[in-house]
Amino acid sequence: MSENSFRVHYHIPYVEEVLHHKQHLDVYSPAEPDHTSNQLRPVVVFVHGGGWRRGDKSNNPLWGAARVGRALAKAGYVAVIPSYRLSKVGIAPTLLLALAYSLTLSLAVYTFLLLPLSFLFRFSTSNIVVLLLGSLFVGFSAWLYWLEETGGGARHPQHIEDVAATIKWTIEHIQEYGGDKSSIFLAGHSAGAHLVSLVTLDRRFIREQGVHESKFDECVKGVIGISGVYNLQRLHNFKIIGLPLARWSFVSPAFTPEQYEAASPTSRATVVPQRFLLLIGERDHAPLKDDFAEMITTLSSAGVIVEGREIPQKNHRKIMFDIDTSSDKTTPAILPWLEKMVLASSSAK
């Protein structure tokens, strides 16, 4: 249970009636938390990304959020890392996605590797491409189907209901793990940034969990969005090599078009006391960079205090998955802001 400078409490249910195995969280805390009332540590609830379709709280190198828990606990924070129910696209779209991914990767391999080195081969490179395409299609199909079957088949608002339930659990129980319930910060990457932003701006989700808005404001002090999705219509319209892969893969399985506006944080911006820190990678996807700029403008116009920062040399994946490594530029951008917010919150008590 204890690992060097931090300890982990694994797989804690955050709802009274667990409907799916994803409805659990892990708590990371410094190795020797002080549980006395005046020495409780600030808390960060971090919600993973993955397009509402994949990801979890685990140490999985492809999508796990455990690295964030480790980094925050080492810095002296109590980190709450939940999983939540995920969406799925079904068999036919899964096979189409597998084919699209396979064609894209095969074309890239042929263009940038096989074609320049074709003089080395004694047989046609087209045979290699066909074999590669077939292998990739089988592999992607199996992987995507496995993701589909383990996620839960959730649709909006089930993802955000789980996030709201996590916040309720944190308010009610985090002191048992050395955390200060009056100094909670919400953070998330990609779809997770969407969820923590929306739950802060649209209070009906937290109210449905039985948490009064005044209690939420008393406990939650700020929001950190990392490469967030804030405008669903923009992601719906985004195309990769002419194909609406983002729509097929992420948006449509989770939302109906009628839900886009109400479920977009840019459409829900209103005056809230929480302060926002928004981060974007220098090499991030174009629609998310547009979301980043729009979200800052929208929040500022609504009277919300917001800061935005671009993380150099990071794309959508590395801004998250370089956390807790020697290449981490995200945690150094977050910690000074958190320290400033904690100090301001302590002074206001």
Span between termini: 34 Å
Give the structural class.
Answer: alpha/beta
* Mean model confidence by pLDDT: 88
Low-confidence stretches: none
Arrangement of strands in the largest sheet: 1-2-3-5-4-6-7-8-9
- Overall shape: globular
Largest sheet: 9 strands, mixed
Give the percentage of residues in beta strands.
Answer: 15-25%
Task: Please tally the β strands and state the result.
Answer: 9
- Computed CA radius of gyration, to the nearest angstrom: 21 Å
Helix content: 40-55%
Helices and strands, in order, run as: EEEEHEHHHEHHHEHHHEHEHH
- Assembly status: single chain
Helix count, DSSP H or I runs of 4 or more residues:
13
Write the layout of secondary structure elements.
Layout (H helix, E strand, L loop, with lengths): L1 E2 L2 E8 L10 E7 L10 E7 L18 H9 L3 E5 L8 H24 L10 H27 L6 H16 L5 E11 L1 H11 L2 H4 L5 H7 E7 L5 H6 L7 H10 L10 H4 L6 E7 L4 H17 L3 E6 L6 H4 L9 H18 L1
Parallel strand pairs: 4-5, 4-6, 6-7, 7-8, 8-9
Antiparallel strand pairs: 1-2, 2-3, 3-5
Helix pairs in contact: 2-3, 4-5
